[in-house]
Design goal:
By secondary structure, the chain is of the alpha/beta class. It is built from 17 helices and 20 strands. The longest helix is centred in the C-terminal third of the chain and has 26 residues. The termini are far apart. The chain binds iron/sulfur cluster. The site of iron/sulfur cluster has 12 residues, from helix 2 and helix 7.
Amino acid sequence: MSKPITASILYNLVQCPHRVSMDLFGDPALRDPINPFVQLLWEKGNAFEQEVIKGLDLPFTNLHTYYGDEKERFTMEAMERGDNLIYSGRISADGFVGEPDILRRCDDGYIAGDIKSGAGEEGGSEDIDGKPKKHYAVQLALYTDILERLRLSGGRTPFVWDVHGKEVEYILDAPQGSRNPASLWDVYQSALETARQLVAHAKDTLPALSSTCKLCHWYTACTKRLEKLDDLTLIPELGRVRRDNMLMHVDSVRDLAQANLKALINGKKTIIPRIGADMLIKFQERARLQKQPGARPYLKEPITLPSADFELFFDIETDPMRDICYLHGFVERHGGDTGTERYIAFLAEDPTSEEEERAFVEAWKYVQDSQPCAIYYYSHYERTIWRKLQKKYSAVATEEEIEAMFDPATAVDLYSHVVRSKTEWPTRDYSIKTLASYLGFKWRDSNPSGAASIEWYHRWVESGDTEIRQRILNYNEDDCVAMRVLLDGIKGLSQR
Ligand code: SF4
């Protein structure tokens, strides 16, 4: 008999179908240890759920201490009694099992909800509504489906209680947008179909290199397999969907590097769905760079960088679980002379809004005192967070002042405006870690990553251990220096 389909299977499937196959049928001996950041996310999620439940000022039925069949029996009894709010229940029907955090009675039955220690939507801001998260939606849809099968559903409008204290309703039957008429219920049905095949072991999956892989416990096993397959997702920005569409025509990096594209290209289009001619040519060039021994990175077109004697390399660290920007780090350099390099950091010494504001005030003053200068940062994240901080602490700086600081004439997003658009590299991705390492830079830490820094910050806040504090600062300093190494490396590239 197949294993039941659960909410966590659907959650993982939306991120990576291969993860579901590996979790169900992979060799457990090949699993990596759980990443400490993933462990922290899990602990913070549980702690947040407990905090929300403790703060409830409504009577509720608490089934948190029960498991399995007993939990399910008590849940059904509570719904038959008509209890208004059930916490941590379990429901099942037709091979589906769900454990919604909340079951809330309404006029026609029950509506399910989950407590999430993240934002209930993605991509929103204070002024613009976000979009529902698909990995939340498929979980909520599964609970709703089970309630419908039990004839206990109060409608297809489940909800999330999110980290901001908001209840976010997921309207499962509504179209996702004017250009996308498919509803979240359609997304759920499609995920369910794939999940059925995976659980029955009736469908093969392939790994695909993506940003989610680094935190996954199959990372080592999948990377080895991708290398053995010479998989197309080893090409930067190619991704799973394009790889799957290309497989019929080219099935490896070497294959693509050697392919005669004339057979695939028709004007501006190709015979491969969702891949235009320019894109295919770009991916072939990347494949060739990877396969050509001694291939060097190059400029695709001339670049113009600010001419400034004083340069700042700027990198921030944030903790999304606490919703705090805890560090603004700068490496400054005079006259292009690395001997003048100095690191300046503004750290929130505890995770409070007072400390976040103090660090922002001091970093802002430092930037003002440093003018005129050129500022380099990597990705739009720094600008996004500084805009957010300006809105939160509007007495520190005006909106116009923050916009002026990020004026592209003097502030350069090296990732978006130089690396991605104007260069090519013989690497698998364009992260600052990959590119600066390619140029010979070494981080002092053996495990440098933004996720690790968040985990260290959490441990430092809990323990006050000054060694951890220093580790956070060293990592941020190295990220800033890596940007300088990258800038100098780019300046030395020749154009093709
Ligand atoms: S490492 Fe990547 S490809 Fe492999 S299971 Fe995890 S997310 Fe999927």
